[in-house]
Amino acid sequence: MKFLRVKMCVAFFAALILFSFQPAYWQSKFIKVDQDGTISYIPDEKGNIIPDFSRVGYHKGNRDIPVLPIVKTLSPSGSSTDEAAIQSAINELSKRDPDKNGFRGAILLKKGVYKIPGTIHINASGIVLRGEGDEQYGTKLIATGKDKRNLISISGQGSLAEVTGSRRKIADSYVPVGAFSFMLESASGLKAGDKIVVLRPGTKNWISDIKMDQIVERQGTKQWQAKEYDLHFEREITKIEGNKVFIDNPVVMAMEANYGGGEIYKYSFNNRIAEVGIENMRFESEYANDTDEEHSWIAVEINKAENCWVKNVTSKYFAYSCVSLENDAKFITIRDSKCLDAKSVITGGRRYSFNNDGQLNLFMNLETTEGRHDFVTGAKVLGPNVFYNCKASQTHADIGPHHRWAVGTLYDNVQTDGAINVQDRGKMGSGHGWSGANQVVWNCKAKEAAVQNPWASAKNYCIGFQGKKAGGAFPDRTDGEWEGHNQPGLTPPSLYRAQLEARQNSKEE
């Protein structure tokens, strides 16, 4: 009996010790998740909330990435170039009529090495370029030669054009961040399904209040000009009630009457392509040495395209990025991919491993090594956009919005051995200034982070961050909305996943 009591005591204290090391689960004061997965958002004094980031990526996350049937198969030639054969197959497929879903089919590149001295272009919808694996002995495309170029370029033509006579003024004096609706002075001529731009104008008094006309100068510094900071958010009308318009993705930059309010207008974008995919292959660039820059810069660049994807790819030795999304790329999903061992001088304008300049895009399950700005946005990048479950190692600079007022990005479960920063970058570059607005850093881990609030019009959030809190380039700037610093157990562990599941459970589109 004595022995039994001893065993019971040992078991009790072992359980007590184990329990004491379990994290205390906690929820943010900004977002509450009920047991059924429903999310409640707690507004600030102006009605702003953390926005819903779940409607990004391929078809807003409402469809799985399709598996297109193979219509043509190629094998490596063993010669100095396979570019012409691949391009010819793409051109041939481009001439076919797409099916009812907009698909033309997949070109399969069998295992082996394909040498590409130039750039492969995909300029038509519904085409997938598929390999047989991104491992060393899978399907490997090598960018040969010394030209600075993209290995694969995916792009339609044309540009966004305002429909004449469709502009309408927003009547509300303040439309908060997170809102899915607002009042117009008149909704005449509008209907559900219309593609619109929600315009948040740049004004002189706004630029002055965020002090971006007062950047401490060095040679080449440019003060921000109001006319350059009109923000054009692409949206779709989901319904109309009188003069109240509902949209498919939230407002991520408050519309403020004292800064010009806001407007909407219908638009067209003729010849923007869609339903293009790159899958299951490896990209490498030839290079002369670790600082060589006379070789391929980007493995896959996408522009003037929507509802496309890149998945299960690995790039090595490129100077700039594995995937770069340009300004007119939207609803793109980049997933399950790696950008490794960049080769370039380690300085500005290089090693942006996964770069996003577009709208409504999703980057998930990514890994990088030897990058500078690994998961990054550029100037005036308009959200929502999401980086989820991404890891960077052997980094040479920080992760986060890089410059000039990127709006509405979620960094969710991002890990790095470097820094994550959302800050005023001042005179860096040619006057980077406030890098990001309404950015959310959720359950991320880094060596250090600086997350600060702009002087006006926006907030930035750092919730559940693990790592050192840093002062940033300007330690006198106001802290962002920090919560749960170095406190494990944040619930939900992923904001993006929780928002997506809540929406899917509610059967919302």
Automatic annotation (TrEMBL):
UniProt protein name: Pectate lyase superfamily protein domain-containing protein
Signal peptide (UniProt feature, chain positions): 1-26
Residue numbers spanned by region Disordered: 473-509
Keyword Signal: yes
Keyword Signal: yes
Record Gene3D superfamilies: Single-stranded right-handed beta-helix, Pectin lyase-like (2.160.20.10)
Coiled coil residues, start to end: none
Keywords: Signal
